[in-house]
């Protein structure tokens, strides 16, 4: 189970290192600071920078939280295990599953990619693909999305990386779908059709594309769609597409 430990904001990694060094490793499975990839521009280029997802907190995965809490109390650092009323409690199952679905094995939220169609945000790739409903604001210039999620029983604002590759009006998008359908009906021959798929649901419903790869274990189907003569790769779930 995942428990949340509060510490000083900006000192999460330093405190984590001290705790790992002083707490018996047999008492926990792992301790970690959830991070996210932020896009930052310096030296005239964009760079990936790791930032703390929840400033002032780190996590411990353990079945022995009372023993861990006793060890934390002996450390000469500000550490406090979050409680539910008077009881030490883990985060809820749905909260843990949500975070696990967002983070990779290193507990990092990778940068997502997407586009804006009218006033809608469409995620084409990355951890936000199945969680765009949590997006409250998109900052295209900072390349980040601001979410509002349930964390330890309360709504918490969170920032993650999001690169918007294009912005279309609804009229432009409808023209795009029409042009794409006409292109595939004229250009694709019979030998190409086994590689083509049709999008059944979501914002791209009705479009066709070229199937590039599929990962049935992760339920990820990577499809190339022509957007105004520029190929764009979009990741779909198996339920969203059908083979031609």
Give the overall silhouette: elongated
> Biggest sheet: strands side by side, in what order?
11-10-14-13-12
The low-pLDDT segments are: 187-194
Question: Which whole number gives the mean pLDDT?
Answer: 86
Topology:
Layout: E1 2-6, H1 12-22, E2 30-32, E3 35-42, E4 45-52, E5 57-61, H2 65-73, E6 80-81, E7 83-84, E8 87-88, H3 93-102, E9 108-109, E10 112-117, E11 120-125, E12 135-139, E13 144-151, E14 154-168, H4 170-187, E15 196-199, E16 208-215, E17 220-227, E18 230-236, E19 241-243
Parallel strand pairs: 3-9, 10-14
Antiparallel strand pairs: 1-5, 1-6, 2-5, 3-4, 7-8, 10-11, 12-13, 13-14, 15-16, 15-19, 16-17, 17-18
What does it look like?
With 244 residues, the protein is α+β, with helices and mostly antiparallel strands. Helices cover 20% and strands 44% of the residues. The longest helix is centred in the last third of the chain and has 18 residues, at 170-187.
């Amino acid at each position: 189970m995942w428990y949340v430990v509060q510490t000083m904001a900006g000192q999460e990694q330093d405190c984590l290192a001290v705790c790992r060094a002083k707490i018996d490793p047999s008492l926990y499975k792992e301790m970690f600071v959830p991070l996210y990839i932020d896009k930052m521009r310096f030296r005239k280029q964009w760079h990936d920078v790791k930032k703390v997802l929840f400033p002032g907190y780190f996590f411990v995965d353990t079945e022995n939280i009372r023993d861990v809490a006793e060890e934390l109390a002996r450390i000469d650092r500000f550490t406090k295990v979050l409680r539910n009323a008077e009881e030490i409690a883990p985060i809820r199952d749905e909260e843990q599953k949500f975070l696990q679905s967002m983070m990779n094995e290193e507990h990092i939220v990778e940068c997502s990619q997407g586009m804006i169609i009218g006033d809608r945000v469409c995620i084409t790739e990355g951890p936000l693909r199945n969680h765009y409903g949590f997006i409250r604001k998109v900052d295209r210039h900072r390349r980040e999305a601001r979410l509002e999620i349930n964390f330890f029983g309360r709504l918490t604002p969170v920032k993650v990386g999001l690169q918007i590759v294009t912005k279309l009006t609804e009229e432009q998008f409808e023209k795009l779908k029409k042009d794409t359908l006409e292109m595939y009906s004229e250009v694709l021959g019979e030998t190409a059709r086994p590689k083509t798929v049709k999008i059944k649901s979501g914002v791209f419903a009705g479009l066709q594309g070229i199937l590039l790869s599929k990962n049935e274990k992760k339920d990820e189907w990577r499809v190339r769609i022509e957007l105004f003569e520029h190929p764009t790769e979009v990741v779909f779930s198996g339920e969203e597409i059908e083979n031609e």
